[in-house]
Amino acid sequence: MPASLVLDPYVTWRQALAGVDAAFADPPALDRPVDGCTHCTPESELVLLGGAPARVSDDLLGHFMREPASHWEDDQYPVLWRRFVPRALRLWGPDGDGTDPSYEIGRLGPDGARLADWPVAERGAVERAFRALLTLAVTDGGPHGRCTGLIEGMAQVTGSLDPWLDHLQGLTGPEADAGLVRLAAG
What we know:
Shape: elongated
Number of strands: 0
Radius of gyration: 17 Å
Largest sheet: none
Number of helices: 9
Structural class: mainly alpha
């Protein structure tokens, strides 16, 4: 592929986020107040989590993303994630807080928020963002552990390594080549 046709990974990331924003423009409503473990999450924060997603602080959002699915009502947990995934992706991306997101990404798996059961447009937007995030991790010169962590989390969510290995195989350009060597050597 000619270099002029290879998209900048940051452009791809911004496009993926725009797709996520469009897919989640009208976040799903909860049918009742958020019910969660009040030992870990005070009632006042449960109320905030059930309100407008934009009003939830990054700290509270991080707390939610790290808490196990068993601390939330089974039917509400996926809805909460669908309400917060656009913000979660931004925290996991290059402008986020820099923490390893693989553990939190794994919360979207079959034992958690069940991404596979989400509406097709939402699931597709999240998976495109995952591919863009993985591309950034491979091409940004960072440590191989970030890539392997992302692949592990994404494979847990989708139930397979294959789509993520196929994505890596399709990456081109000197930054991708260097990243894949770093990944293989690590």
